[in-house]
Specification:
It is built from ten helices and twelve strands. Helix 5 links the parallel strand 3 and strand 4. The chain has a five-stranded mixed beta sheet, with helices on both faces. It has a five-stranded mixed beta sheet with strand order 9-8-10-7-11. Strands 1-2 form a two-stranded antiparallel ribbon. The protein is of the alpha/beta class. About 30% of the residues are buried. Helix 2 crosses helix 3 and helix 5 crosses helix 10.
């Protein structure tokens, strides 16, 4: 079916399948009789899937990827005695959520090999949809249909604006929107949800056309470029505070900030096709436990700072 979808020509598909065209046509007809629906429309110009065929093809693709994944899993167990878990995450999550998850998983599942992939959310969700990834950790997107994914809110973390220590803005204690008008920016990738939200923030500051020198979602690249050049970027507050403690960047003291959305845990609703269904569920539970603990600890620390006499001594 996938050959027919890709080629949209019964003769070409039969050649690739090492079948005669009549034999391929018979197989397709038998399949249609078995499911009770017309899966393809035949014409002189080619063979195209019907609505029923498109749905069938989607499930066929899922089964194909699951079969390949199972073969890989069996080979991994046979030769290395290990199971595998494939995680996709936004770069910021690889510095926060992912390390905690890895430590917990390696402690509880000692025969596990974990692969980590970072990048922008949309391509990773496409891989999750076809079984190439087991879990994706990232922020909400409005660019693709999310109905095929289960989503768990892990955390909400505001974004802050940052610059390098050498940037002139790092020396100003009281900033306002006017200070940002001559700045050069690092922006997220065009077309992403994060890019749209940062544009909204710039609009609120009266920056109709911000000067964008770099588009990057890679945290370490952004941190290095902020240290080298007089640039401004948006970064998750927790990550920004970490690099500020390392004396690698400066958080701009602005009351108005940008919301890139909650940090979400995405899994495929069709876990029945995943050879790692139980392991994925275990990883999801561990992530929720870790983020809940860190959230409670953060609230406790904030409350402690607000108690009388808890501030820094003179």
């Amino acid at each position: 079916m996938l050959h027919w979808l890709r080629l949209q020509n019964l003769h070409k598909a039969s050649v690739q399948l090492h079948m005669t065209q009549p034999a391929a046509s018979k197989v397709l007809s038998q399949l249609e009789q078995e499911v009770g629906y017309a899966l393809f429309e035949r014409s002189a110009t080619g063979t195209v899937p019907t609505a029923y065929g498109s749905l069938m093809i989607e499930y066929a693709r899922q089964v194909l990827h699951a079969t390949r994944r199972i073969q890989s899993e069996l080979s991994q167990v046979q030769y290395h005695g290990q199971r595998t878990l494939a995680i996709g995450a936004l770069p910021s999550a690889t510095l926060s959520v992912v390390p905690d998850l890895l430590s917990a998983l390696l402690a509880q599942v000692p025969d596990l090999q974990v692969s980590i992939e970072d990048g922008i959310i949309e391509p990773m969700l496409e891989k999750l949809n076809v079984g190439l990834l087991d879990i994706v950790i990232g922020r909400r997107t409005e660019l693709i249909d999310l109905s095929g994914f289960d989503r768990i809110i892990l955390d909400y973390e505001p974004m802050v604006l940052v610059c390098g220590l050498q940037h002139p803005l790092a020396q100003i204690r009281k900033l306002d929107a006017g200070h940002l008008h001559d700045c050069t920016w690092i922006f997220p990738q065009a077309g992403t949800y994060a890019n749209a939200k940062l544009i909204e923030l710039c609009d609120s500051f009266g920056l109709a056309h911000p000067s964008i020198a770099i588009r990057s979602s890679t945290t370490m690249t952004n941190v290095i470029m902020l240290a080298r050049e007089n640039l401004v970027a948006a970064m998750p507050q927790g990550i920004a505070r970490y690099f500020e403690r390392q004396n690698m960047l400066h958080i701009l003291p602005l009351e108005k900030t940008v919301n890139f959305g909650e940090v979400l845990l995405f899994t495929n609703k069709r876990l029945v096709y995943s050879p790692n269904a139980a392991l994925i569920a275990q990883a999801c539970t561990l992530i929720q436990q870790k983020t809940a603990f860190k959230r409670a600890l953060s609230v406790e620390q904030e409350n402690a700072l607000q108690r009388p006499g808890s501030g820094p001594s003179e």
